[in-house]
């Protein structure tokens, strides 16, 4: 395994581990998801450069667009839950209580 693949793999796995173990607040969960998406963006960008065809160059831009939409939606939900529940702790977001 080359050093580049090892770096992308460990970056993505650190995002998954952060999401699994440190999801007390909604903001930390969103940051872990954003780190995973950025690792995938960089990996897809290098993959497109490695294959040197024009059809693969639009895939990272599409994924980056979806990542920006995901981030803005997540931040809007975080602001809405912080206003209604008083904090962004995931423990307080029980759907049965709303």
UniProtKB/TrEMBL annotation:
<feature type="transmembrane region" description="Helical">
    <location>
        <begin position="6"/>
        <end position="22"/>
    </location>
</feature>
<keyword id="KW-0999">Mitochondrion inner membrane</keyword>
<dbReference type="GO" id="GO:0098803">
    <property type="term" value="C:respiratory chain complex"/>
</dbReference>
<dbReference type="InterPro" id="IPR001133">
    <property type="entry name" value="NADH_UbQ_OxRdtase_chain4L/K"/>
</dbReference>
<keyword id="KW-0679">Respiratory chain</keyword>
<keyword id="KW-1133">Transmembrane helix</keyword>
<feature type="transmembrane region" description="Helical">
    <location>
        <begin position="29"/>
        <end position="49"/>
    </location>
</feature>
<feature type="transmembrane region" description="Helical">
    <location>
        <begin position="61"/>
        <end position="82"/>
    </location>
</feature>
<keyword id="KW-0830">Ubiquinone</keyword>
<protein>
    <recommendedName>
        <fullName>NADH-ubiquinone oxidoreductase chain 4L</fullName>
        <ecNumber>7.1.1.2</ecNumber>
    </recommendedName>
</protein>
<keyword id="KW-0472">Membrane</keyword>
<comment type="function">
    <text>Core subunit of the mitochondrial membrane respiratory chain NADH dehydrogenase (Complex I) which catalyzes electron transfer from NADH through the respiratory chain, using ubiquinone as an electron acceptor. Part of the enzyme membrane arm which is embedded in the lipid bilayer and involved in proton translocation.</text>
</comment>
<dbReference type="GO" id="GO:1902495">
    <property type="term" value="C:transmembrane transporter complex"/>
</dbReference>
<keyword id="KW-0249">Electron transport</keyword>
<keyword id="KW-0496">Mitochondrion</keyword>
<keyword id="KW-0520">NAD</keyword>
<keyword id="KW-1278">Translocase</keyword>
<dbReference type="InterPro" id="IPR039428">
    <property type="entry name" value="NUOK/Mnh_C1-like"/>
</dbReference>
<comment type="similarity">
    <text>Belongs to the complex I subunit 4L family.</text>
</comment>
<dbReference type="GO" id="GO:0008137">
    <property type="term" value="F:NADH dehydrogenase (ubiquinone) activity"/>
</dbReference>
<keyword id="KW-0812">Transmembrane</keyword>
<keyword id="KW-0813">Transport</keyword>
<dbReference type="GO" id="GO:0016651">
    <property type="term" value="F:oxidoreductase activity, acting on NAD(P)H"/>
</dbReference>
<dbReference type="GO" id="GO:0005743">
    <property type="term" value="C:mitochondrial inner membrane"/>
</dbReference>
<dbReference type="GO" id="GO:0042773">
    <property type="term" value="P:ATP synthesis coupled electron transport"/>
</dbReference>
<dbReference type="Pfam" id="PF00420">
    <property type="entry name" value="Oxidored_q2"/>
</dbReference>
<dbReference type="GO" id="GO:0030964">
    <property type="term" value="C:NADH dehydrogenase complex"/>
</dbReference>
């Amino acid at each position: 395994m080359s050093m580049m693949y090892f770096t992308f793999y460990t970056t993505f796995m650190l995002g998954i581990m952060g999401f699994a173990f440190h999801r007390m607040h909604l903001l930390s969960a969103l940051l872990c998801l954003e780190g995973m998406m950025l690792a995938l963006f960089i990996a897809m960008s290098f993959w497109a450069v490695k294959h040197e065809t024009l059809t693969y160059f639009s895939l990272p831009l599409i994924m980056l667009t979806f990542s920006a939409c995901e981030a803005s939606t997540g931040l809007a939900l975080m602001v809405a839950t912080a206003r209604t529940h008083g904090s962004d702790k995931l423990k307080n977001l029980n759907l049965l209580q709303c």
